[in-house]
Amino acid sequence: MKALKEKIGQLEERIREDIRTLSDEIYAHPELGFEEDFAATRHVALLEKYGFSVERPFLGFDTAFKAVYDSKKPGPVVALMAEYDALPGIGHGCGHNMLGASSTGAGIVLRFLAQEVGGQVVVLGTPAEETSGVKVDMAQAGVFKEMDVALIAHPDTRYRLSSSSLALQPIQFEFFGKASHAASEPHEGINALDGAILTFNNINALREHILPTARIHGVITHGGEAANIVPEYACAQFYVRAQDKKYLLELVEKVRNCAKAGALATGCRMEESEYEKPYDDLVTNQVLNQAYYEAIRLYTDEFVEEEEGGGGSLDTGNVSHCLPTIHGYFPIARDYIPAHSREFAQATQGAYAYDKLGEIISVLALVGYRVLTEEDLLKAAKAEYEDQKAKGKVIPPYAS
Q1: Measuring CA to CA, how many Å separate 239 from each of 212, 214, 234?
Q2: How many CA atoms, within 13 angstroms, populate the side-chain half-sphere of residue 337?
Q3: pTM of the predicted model, to two decimals?
Q4: For strand 149-156 and strand 159-160, is the pairing parallel, antiparallel, or unpaired?
Q5: What single DSSP character describes residue 145?
Q6: 26-35, pLDDT tens digit by residue?
């Protein structure tokens, strides 16, 4: 293991300047989801430089790509997932410039290892994680059927193992009423805003009877034109979240009934739609998670936080319903900094973050190497996934 660690370290050092430049360039050119042309172009150029065959656009998305290194020897297929979208107003406040660089860097290091031991390495460019992530489309299209495991690590302020995330269903309700003069002829109108408000009231009454781990939160995006006109149109958007996909589906039906009741009570017509893509809950593969933990311990003595549930939602969750998956975390600052902040973005420019970028590249490459070379490890990871599927914990978005 010591010799392997040294070899991976030498490979990481070989590409270090390229990877840091990649991260810094994308930091300096933040792009929102589905607009990441600069970022995707930089990733693709670097992967092609190191021998990957790249398909871009991928699945019809201009800023998505699939990069493959085939050793021409039999073996497993390891996927690494790169994100590179920014946030409006604050740039890379989630650190995706460094996340994408870590996945591409690990893919390149692993490519040199696969050249010797066999198998394939795939780096997937996955746009728009912050809004309507393309990993959802990749999962639905069966992209992961040809792969054996999927790996990703997200910037944080401490090492954390892969844990869980909330399943998410975005849902929009539009209410259509009838405009009239709100003072002289209110009886001629049908108030669409009242339909939306009653929906919120109905959901608030529902909260007493849902699991405490579930979340329902929403906004009214349109509520009328003027106070003296009965609103003829109103629109409300919600996120419904739950710890698992099965309960989410139950909860969404209850929320849907809350909107139907609001429309019925006010005489409005209501239309429902999905304004963003739904994210499944992350089901961590614990066999891979243990390998991730062991790899971190090989490279650092820094504290590794034990598994804990996540409060947000990830499109990596959809991937985890397709194959053994982990979504770990690595530090880019010594002290706590809230994510989605300008301070977090700035932290990706520090010497500590650069050191940890090299470290996480080595960690992910080591996990990937073990998948390529340890038959029992991969067999155990797949057996765990199949057991979760049999229990209904993972629900693939396609037929087996």
Answers
A1: 15, 11, 17
A2: 22
A3: 0.90
A4: unpaired
A5: G
A6: 999 999 999 9
